[in-house]
């Protein structure tokens, strides 16, 4: 997610205002092709902005709409571009529906293409009262256990250490925290800072799976072979490595260009990942931006906590991908003298002891269907 917003051109400003009127109608079409879950409002806030052109480092790339909720900059599922719908599939890895001239809303595959929610989701998802999350309440979060073995985990970590030394860079969501910065490393093929070394496998439609190291390439193959996931080409592999228990991941929505199908593999330790609906974040913006408050009570009362065991992966699609943020809350110490830190899972009646080492590997895929290849056609790969 990019933190800086680019200045608006006059034409772009006009488009943003026009999208006010069109956003809700177009998004309703998108909603019809997604799992409902807890559907958030599609109303475009007045503090949204447009990033035009260079969203993917390409002069002719689509313009991206963003919303600010306190300190959080969140991409909207809408793009502004003069390009054809089938061309945008190459930029985003997902179908789009035309709202108006040069304005499109994303249209991911229908939820019925994915495996049904089951016992794993009942075991590992909790609401803020500590209750299991029903199928109707689940916006598109799934758990896959034992994606890799202990031996495979060791091989992956060995490969990653070598890659981080050559292509990784220090990062933290809190730029003022020097200790967290020194203990956190990121490796990605996505051009985020333009000054940092990039992983050799690239990103988006230019992703080259052959450039992945062998152990990571085997994980991609495993994910592609999972039943109940209609996956297209892989578009992103990003690695976050931490050697401290003092960290958080702020609520965010991944860049649209990553694709509509995301898996996050947890290595070295377990984690609790928190999903928040945009409508609730807007309604409770002050609370959601108060570090001390959300560490104890989460970002909103509508949040869903996902417990991710070591060597398991969680996936998110549909509304969970585009209408909910995901985050990792900061850990809490029982007392200033206590050397251990904990994070809640649903409520403080169930806690996870945070370990000092964790690697999270993000794998993002396009939708299964290929776009229409006729430049004269306006066909859109809806996936329905």
From TrEMBL:
The chain crosses the membrane at residues 12-32. This is Gsp-2 protein. Keywords: Membrane, Transmembrane, Transmembrane helix. The keyword Mitochondrion does not apply. GO terms for molecular function: demethylase activity; oxidoreductase activity. InterPro entries: AlkB-like_sf, ALKBH4. One of its GO terms (biological process) is demethylation.
């Amino acid at each position: 997610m990019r933190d800086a917003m680019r200045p608006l051109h006059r034409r772009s400003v006009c488009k943003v205002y026009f999208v006010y009127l069109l956003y809700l109608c177009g998004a309703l079409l998108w909603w019809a092709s997604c799992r409902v879950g807890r559907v958030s409002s599609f109303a475009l806030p007045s503090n949204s902005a447009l990033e035009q052109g260079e969203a993917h480092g390409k002069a002719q790339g689509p313009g991206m709409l963003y919303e600010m909720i306190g300190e959080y900059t969140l991409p909207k599922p809408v793009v502004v571009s003069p390009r054809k719908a089938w061309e945008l599939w190459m930029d985003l890895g997902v179908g789009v529906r035309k709202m108006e001239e040069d304005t499109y809303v994303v249209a991911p595959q229908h939820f019925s293409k994915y495996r049904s929610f089951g016992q794993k989701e009942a075991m590992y998802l909790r609401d803020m009262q500590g209750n299991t999350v029903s199928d109707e309440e689940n916006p598109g979060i799934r758990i896959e256990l034992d994606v890799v073995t202990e031996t495979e985990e060791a091989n992956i970590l060995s490969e990653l250490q070598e890659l981080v030394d050559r292509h990784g860079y220090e990062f933290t969501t809190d730029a003022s925290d020097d200790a967290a910065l020194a203990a956190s490393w990121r490796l990605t093929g996505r051009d985020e800072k333009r000054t940092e070394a990039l992983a050799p496998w690239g990103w988006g439609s230019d992703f080259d799976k052959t450039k992945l190291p062998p152990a990571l390439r085997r994980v991609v193959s495993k994910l592609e072979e999972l039943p109940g996931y209609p996956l297209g080409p892989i578009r992103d592999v990003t690695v976050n490595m931490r050697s401290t228990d003092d960290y958080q991941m702020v609520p965010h929505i991944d860049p649209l260009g990553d694709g509509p199908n995301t898996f996050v593999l947890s290595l070295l330790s377990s984690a609790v990942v928190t999903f928040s609906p945009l409508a609730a974040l807007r309604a409770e913006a002050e609370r959601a931006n108060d570090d001390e408050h959300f560490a104890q009570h989460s970002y909103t009362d509508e949040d869903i906590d996902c417990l991710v065991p070591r060597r398991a992966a969680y996936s998110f699609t549909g509304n969970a991908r585009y209408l909910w943020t995901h985050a990792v809350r900061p850990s809490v110490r029982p007392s200033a003298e206590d050397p251990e830190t904990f994070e809640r899972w649903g409520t403080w009646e169930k806690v996870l002891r945070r370990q000092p080492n964790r690697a999270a590997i993000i794998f993002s895929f396009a939708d299964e269907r290929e776009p229409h290849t006729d430049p004269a056609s306006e066909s859109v790969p809806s996936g329905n």
